[in-house]
Write a structure and sequence with these properties.
Blueprint (H helix, E strand, L loop, with lengths): L8 H4 L8 H12 L7 H15 L4 E6 L12 H8 L8 E3 L2 E5 L5 E5 L4 E6 L9 E7 L5 E6 L5 E5 L23 H10 L4 H6 L9 H10 L13 H20 L41 E5 L2 E5 L10 H15 L1
Antiparallel strand pairs: 1-6, 2-3, 3-4, 4-8, 5-7, 6-7, 9-10
Helix pairs in contact: 3-8, 5-8, 7-8
Length: about 325
């Protein structure tokens, strides 16, 4: 299946800044506004770290230090500790932005990182880092696992029978890295929707794992405006956007994900570096790495969208529709 306006390989992995990592992250965080929930690459980095660190290890004890991160475990913190102790982890798995830690007996711990959730490995004698919420100790006496969450929008819960796929996330669509991801079927469903392309990309039931950062980056690679209607897209155009998203996320995964601040780290506490390769996200007022036109930041779905106005031209009627919405909003006010 061919793409419309295929991006060059250089477009798919463009290094946009030579600033030092700390300077670059501070600038991005300032321009991007509110923190984002970790997307597929960041969650996959965590899953891989967990897979190499906890698979096959038996839990000897659990301490819940704050009840909020286990609020979705309805039986409460004490029951969570009892339910988990003595079980053995199988290899961690992921779908979209969710990761789960299967047990060898068929149950699982379902984890959502929220905005600031982290898994960290540490020796039992190591001091607790700030905002440590749950501690797992292992029977082999090796490094323990800690769940750290500053804002506590994330959390853990036991999912009975959830080793293969927790029922709590069964409605989440497959992501582009899933071996059973159906590109043709996803394209067909996308084209049947009466919506715009960025809203479709953010719909986790259609295709999971893509959030605001990688949606903007994928649309830049595909040279497509975020408000392009999906119903009149060709198969090639629709497939090209999804393929671009997969490519951008794959490149981000190679760089350890995107880290704007200390809240985005892997299980060893290291940050990813894909923020230095972002083409448009968080780069308002800076030159497009492809054509030099200044990047714009525009409101979209109570968040921001970043685009190049030359590479990603507005669809026909978009300016008129935007003006009508703004006029309606002011009249309502």
């Amino acid at each position: 299946m061919t793409r419309c306006l295929p991006p060059s390989p250089a477009d798919e992995k463009r290094v946009c800044s030579l600033a030092r990592p700390g300077q670059r992250r501070a600038s991005l965080a300032q321009h991007a506004g509110a923190r984002s929930v970790p997307e597929l690459p960041e969650v996959e980095v965590v899953r891989r770290g967990l897979a190499s660190s906890i698979t096959g290890r038996q839990i000897s004890g659990v301490r819940v230090l704050h009840p909020r991160p286990v609020r979705r475990h309805l039986a409460g913190p004490a029951d969570f500790e009892v339910q988990v102790t003595g079980r053995t982890f199988a290899e961690p798995r992921r779908r979209g932005k969710y990761v789960w830690l299967p047990f060898t007996d068929g149950d699982a711990i379902l984890a959502h990182l929220g905005m600031s959730g982290q898994f960290r490995l540490a020796d039992a004698a190591a001091p607790l880092v700030p905002n440590t919420r749950i501690i797992f100790a292992f029977a082999d006496g090796g490094p323990g696992l800690r769940f750290v969450d500053q804002r506590m929008f994330g959390g853990l819960s036991v999912s009975p029978g959830g080793a293969e796929l927790p029922r709590e996330i069964a409605h989440i669509g497959r992501d582009p890295f899933d071996p059973e991801f159906d590109l043709a079927g996803t394209v067909a469903r996308l084209r049947r929707r009466d919506t715009v392309i960025k809203r479709a990309l953010l719909d986790q039931q259609l295709v999971s794992g893509i959030g605001n950062i990688y949606a903007d980056e994928a649309l830049w690679v595909a040279r497509m405006h975020y408000a392009r209607p999906t119903h009149n897209m060709s198969r090639g155009q629709a497939a090209g956007v999804i393929t671009a998203a997969a490519s951008v996320m794959s490149n981000a995964l190679d760089d350890g994900g995107t880290s704007f601040d200390a809240l985005y780290v892997n299980i060893n506490g290291s940050s990813g570096y894909f923020d230095r390769s972002l083409a448009v996200y968080g780069r308002e007022g800076k030159p497009c790495p492809r054509c030099g036109t200044l990047i714009r930041r525009e409101p979209f779905m109570n968040r921001s969208s970043y685009r190049c106005p030359r590479c990603q031209r507005s669809p026909r009627g978009f300016k008129i529709q935007s003006a009508m919405r703004e006029h309606s909003r002011k009249n309502e006010g």
